[in-house]
């Protein structure tokens, strides 16, 4: 079953409903979704030393009747009391029952309304498109952006969405000749794990008869070396504030890699590219 449909329809236990939700009153759908997704998820993945403060924020905003976005109409009081008793312990599962109650509410009338809307049919169309295999016919190929040891990088566009990417084509013959199979596989595995706005991300991967293709974030702002010597002038260079801003972005990218257990050794200005001025 489709991921979003599963999410909406999970935990249908009728015992989770309070009397107020059954009588037709209830919080806004936006509030219930915000509670069960970004806020509780942020608590669950937070550091232990910050969990008590995050839990207090969730309680104040969503689990108190006077809260601005309270979901107490669909969570029975005993469930809230049980969660409150676990607050000081900092357990990851404090809000487990509360989330199940909220999802049970969303799986009822809100989901039925969603199914009757145009958005549900549009969602099914996108999920069908998402399930289609990725091949060379998924993209339109444009000019070559650069060349490397195993092949070339060219601009490409997804036919269905029009979004632009950079396609890194690694020729199979060159890979085999240079015994680079392990290196290419490691590169793909690392790119699959990365999820940072300060590091190039892998969007698609496919193969043709002659090449392995990695479809990556397109960096169309030029590299840092070009900006230093051509846009700013070789004598003046970058201004202090701009240099600090770029350094901070590079540090954020390296921090993400280090958290993933990845060491990157090639920090050079010509390997530091800009996505859109002034972002790296």
From TrEMBL:
GO biological process terms, semicolon-separated: regulation of signal transduction; signal transduction
Signal peptide start and end residues: none
GO MF, any single term: ATP binding
Gene3D superfamilies reported for this sequence: Phosphorylase Kinase, domain 1, Regulator of G-protein Signalling 4, domain 2, Transferase(Phosphotransferase) domain 1
Binding locations of ATP: 177
Catalytic activities: [G-protein-coupled receptor] + ATP = [G-protein-coupled receptor]-phosphate + ADP + H(+)
Residues in RGS domain copies: 40-124
Keywords: ATP-binding, Kinase, Nucleotide-binding, Receptor, Serine/threonine-protein kinase, Transferase
Family: Belongs to the protein kinase superfamily. AGC Ser/Thr protein kinase family. GPRK subfamily.
Domain Protein kinase: 139-280
EC category: transferase
Family annotation (PROSITE patterns): PROTEIN_KINASE_ATP, PROTEIN_KINASE_DOM, RGS
Protein name (database record): G protein-coupled receptor kinase
CC terms in the record's Gene Ontology section: cytoplasm
EC number: 2.7.11.-
